[in-house]
Amino acid sequence: MIKESSSPLAKHMVNTLRDAACKPIEFRHYLKELAKLLIFEAAESLPLCERKISTWQGNFNGSFIDESRVVCVSILRAALPMQEGVLEVLANAEGGFLAMKRDEESHKSRLYYDRIPDLKGKTVIVVDPMVATGSSLHDAISLLQERGPDAIVTLNVIGAKEGVEQIASAFSGVAMHIAQIDPYLNKDAYIVPGLGDAGDRAYNTPG
Ligand code: URA
After folding, report:
1. Whose C-alpha lies nearest to ligand 1, atom 2?
2. Which domain holds residue 158?
3. Using the 8-state DSSP alphabet, how is residue 20 labeled?
4. Is residue 137 part of a domain?
5. How many angstroms separate the first and last alpha carbons of the chain?
6. Mutation probe of ligand 1 site: the residue of 14, 109, 135, 195 with most atoms within 8 A of C-beta
7. For residue 58, how many other CB atoms are within 10 A of its CB?
8. Which CATH number covers residue 15?
């Protein structure tokens, strides 16, 4: 299921990221803020619990997100600011990491590091700003599904139409919350208009 944001604020922030004048510190800032906006939109997929708290008026039974059953997984490295944003909102959720390298010839991804907590009975929020061919997100979701979570949702900033549709058809049970869908990929599998290489832009490295 694909949910493209209709928020003018999402458009504002995505287009700010597209601007070549957006500096790395601003770039990381807007990735983080976009992740916060997207997690608000995705919150209906998160597990809830009731908790008794004491307030200035005495005991109160309130509804909370069950953070003990939420894991936010980032695909290094451009997703790191997004993970930071999610973990600022859900301060007691767990974090996990996957590192994948894109082969510039085949455009396929290769996993070379994973550090994922136990996922049984958990809802996993996968953050990955750019969905180009969808290959790394596809491999990430497949790997995470094998570890038995209750549900998987993704937060993405820009996706190429074909990559997003590929993920949606491969994983019908995964809710994909995306800020903006762009029309196509170029021959090097970069999203057009996109914003270039998100990792390089966030961390000030030459392409
Ligand atoms: N990864 C990026 O950072 N940008 C693209 O356009 C495609 C993949």
Report:
1. 197
2. 2-47+65-200
3. T
4. yes
5. 33
6. 195
7. 6
8. 3.40.50.2020
Going by C-beta distance under 8 Å and a sequence separation of 6 or more, which residues neighbour residue 109? 100, 101, 102, 103, 135, 136, 139
What is the distance in A from the centroid of ligand 1 to the CA of 101? 12
- In whole angstroms, what is the distance from residue 19 CA to residue 194 CA? 10
Q: Could you give the number of structural domains in the chain?
A: 1
Residues with CB under 6 A from ligand 1: 78, 130, 132, 190-191, 194, 197-199
Return per-residue pLDDT of the chain as tens, 207 residues. Answer: 999 999 999 999 999 999 999 999 999 999 999 999 999 999 999 999 999 999 999 999 999 999 999 999 999 999 999 999 999 999 999 999 999 887 778 877 889 999 999 999 999 999 999 999 999 999 999 999 999 999 999 999 999 999 999 999 999 999 999 999 999 999 999 999 999 999 999 999 987
Q: Which residue has tokens 């976009």?
A: 34
Residue entry with tokens 């949702």: 153
Residue 120's identity, in one-letter code, is K
